[in-house]
Structures are given as structure tokens and as C-alpha cells.
From TrEMBL:
It comes from Solanum pennellii. This is Feruloyl CoA ortho-hydroxylase 2-like. Belongs to the iron/ascorbate-dependent oxidoreductase family. Residues 200-308 form the Fe2OG dioxygenase domain. The keyword Flavoprotein does not apply.
């Protein structure tokens, strides 16, 4: 195959997205030349020189979750890094390994099977199953080097519509991960003097949840493509399981330095999203991250996005402003924030401006 096969944008979008061959479909065709549409502009790539081996994000052992020091390290990591890994979190390794195997099974299906889950667009409040390739706006010229499937995990979602390859494994993971997410949020809220995380706060902090499975096919030239462009999550928090391939990077503290989130067997990465940064009036940080792809291995990652309900109003907690602290953000409807984020896909931290006073 040569790049000339996909001269027009429509051709490649049709093959990769609409026909659900995915980026994986390109690779399966023994791709030798990367199509122009997959070559990222320089500002979206990750150069080797930007990778910083000196800084690292913290790993927190949750074996003694009730220990005050453990709680403090979670709050501190959320303040300083916005990104950390957790070990001994209680989710059995088998649940995670099964998730990974299910992911391979699904993405290895022929396109005719995957196309059943293709959906053109996804709007606020809708939580269906959706397969996409190279997430981006339909008119986006540059495709990310990944295929994904989203499972909406809310009571109104019918998991019978999920693929049989992923259904049970995603449900099992959700069963274990939901109480863990709640415990983490409880601790994070305590760090903001919000001490009563009762049922009334659940819609605001974990009203909608979605589990994505990302499949990053191997790429003949990872230096000119990107698996996931640098972005922040809109969530309150995101829990991420990754396999042992590596490739997830987080922006460091020195500007344009990027820190590798080293895979640790059985660990989960946790990051603060924009919604919790807004609610915390900037005490907790939603940090940019991106994914570089591997030249020889397909990588699996499974983020669980813990979001507010779409009809929630998000803004700094009143507890934050009690002692005269100035609010950095106004209150906005979460669905408006979501729509702004996904319509505009602002780069870096620009999306937060939408909620700034
Ligand atoms: C995401 C994301 C990281 C990864 O899907 O929002 O940041 O490692 N994924 O796949
Ligand atoms: Ni992300």
C-alpha cells in the first residue's frame, strides 16, 4: 500500500472510520508509507528531547487506605501533579488482565463486525456504545493513531448492546472500580474541606461514567504520529488501566517537559480532570497528557471517566470561598462545558477559560 491510495481526506476517513477498519486496518495492510492524514503537525508530536527522565509522578500504596498519611499523599499528589499511580487498590489483577484480553479480542474482529458499533457523533447526555477511530472532529485532517470503543456506564444504558467480547469484562471492572473511585473522591473532597460526601453529591461528582477501551496499533514511524494528542480530561477524575507497553506522558513542571507514566503491573493511573479543577478553585490540577505509540506493539489502555451529571452545575465549592478566597471560575452547566470542550477541542488548558470569571 502506498500513501497515494488515500489521497483525499474522504477516502481515508471512509476506510478508517466509516468502514471501521480503524488505524489497525491500515497497519494490517502492511503499511509502508504513513498516509499524510496521519502525519501530525510538529506541535502535536512528542519529540524525544521533550522527555524528562528526572521527574516522575508519585506512586501511592493504598494498602492502608485509612492511614492519614495515605490520604494526605493523595491530596498532595492531586495538588502538585494532578496525576499519580495507585497500587494495592483492591482490584484483582485478573479483572484487569481479562479487560486487556477482551480489548484485543474486540479490536481484532473484522471491520464488518466492528462497524456495527460505529456512530457518527456523540452528544452530551448520550451514553451509548460508540466505536470510533482516531478521535477527532469529522473534518479533522490529522488522525490520531488509535481506535477506541466507549461504553456508557449509567443506569439507562443497556449493556446488552455492548459487544460480547467486552461486555462481561467491562461490567466486572466497573463493579470494582466504582467504589474505588468513590473512596478517592471522598479523600480528595476532604482535602477541600468538603467533609460530607453523601448521596446528594454523587450526581455532581460521579453522575455519569464511561469506560473507554483504547487500542493503539504499532506504528512504523512513531516520531511523526501521535496516539492521543495532548489534552486534559473533562472528568472529575479518571482512573486508567494500561498494559505494559508504555507511552503515556504527562506534562511536567518545567514547561515543555513530559514525564513517562511507567507501567506498573496491577497499578492504575489516576488523574484530576477539568471538572474537579473548577470545583476545587484551582487547588487540584487537571494536567495535560498525551500518548506516543510503539513501533512494534499494540497498546491497550482503559480509562474510566468519572464525570458530573450532564445537568449538574459545576463551580467552586462554597467551602472554598468561605474565607474570602476569590472564585477563579463561575458556575456553568456541565453539558455546556462538555459541548464546548468537544466542539472546539481547544488545545492545552484553553478549555478552562470557558468557565473562568
Ligand atoms: C484518554 C487518555 C491515555 C491512554 O483517553 O483520555 O488520556 O493512556 N488516554 O490511553
Ligand atoms: Ni485523557
Amino acid at each position: 500500500m502506498t500513501s497515494s491510495k488515500f489521497e483525499s481526506n474522504d477516502d481515508i476517513l471512509d476506510f478508517v472510520i466509516k468502514k471501521a477498519n480503524g488505524i489497525k486496518g491500515l497497519v494490517d495492510k502492511s503499511l509502508e508509507i504513513i498516509p499524510n492524514q496521519c502525519i501530525q503537525p510538529k506541535e502535536h508530536r512528542l519529540e524525544k528531547s521533550q522527555i524528562d527522565n528526572q521527574e516522575s509522578i508519585p506512586t501511592i500504596d493504598l494498602s492502608n487506605f485509612d492511614d492519614l498519611n495515605v490520604k494526605k499523599s493523595i491530596q498532595e499528589a492531586a495538588r502538585k501533579w494532578g496525576f499519580f499511580q495507585i497500587i494495592n487498590h483492591g482490584i484483582p489483577i485478573k479483572v484487569l488482565e481479562d479487560l486487556k484480553d477482551a480489548a484485543h479480542k474486540f479490536f481484532e474482529l473484522p471491520a464488518e463486525e466492528k462497524v456495527k458499533y460505529y456512530k457518527e457523533s456523540y452528544s452530551a447526555g448520550e451514553s451509548v456504545l460508540m466505536f470510533w477511530s482516531a478521535i477527532g472532529d469529522k473534518n479533522e485532517k490529522f488522525l490520531e493513531w488509535r481506535d477506541s470503543i466507549k461504553h456508557g456506564c449509567n443506569p439507562e444504558n443497556d449493556s446488552n448492546l455492548w459487544p460480547s467480547q467486552t461486555r462481561n469484562q467491562v461490567l466486572e471492572y466497573q463493579k470494582w472500580a466504582t467504589p474505588l473511585a468513590k473512596k478517592l473522591l471522598e479523600v480528595l473532597l476532604k482535602g477541600l474541606n468538603v467533609n460530607d460526601f453523601d448521596e446528594s453529591l454523587e450526581p455532581l461528582l460521579m453522575g455519569t461514567m464511561a469506560i473507554n477501551i483504547n487500542y493503539y496499533p504499532p506504528c512504523p514511524d512513531p516520531s511523526i504520529t501521535i496516539g492521543a494528542r495532548r489534552h486534559c480530561d473533562v472528568s472529575c477524575i479518571t482512573l486508567l488501566f494500561q498494559d505494559d507497553t508504555g507511552g503515556l506522558y504527562v506534562r511536567g513542571t518545567k514547561g515543555d517537559n513530559w514525564i513517562h507514566v511507567k507501567p506498573i503491573k496491577g497499578a492504575l493511573a489516576v488523574n484530576i480532570g477539568d471538572s474537579l479543577q473548577i470545583m476545587s478553585n484551582d487547588r487540584y490540577k487537571s494536567i495535560e497528557h498525551c500518548v506516543a505509540v510503539d513501533s512494534s506493539r499494540a497498546r491497550i489502555s482503559v480509562p474510566l471517566f468519572v464525570n458530573p451529571c450532564f445537568d449538574s452545575v459545576i463551580g467552586p465549592f462554597s467551602q472554598m470561598l468561605k474565607d474570602g478566597e476569590k472564585p477563579v471560575y463561575k458556575h456553568v452547566l456541565f453539558s455546556d462545558y462538555w459541548n464546548h470542550f468537544f466542539r472546539k477541542r481547544p488545545s492545552g488548558k484553553a478549555s478552562l477559560d470557558f468557565a473562568k470569571i
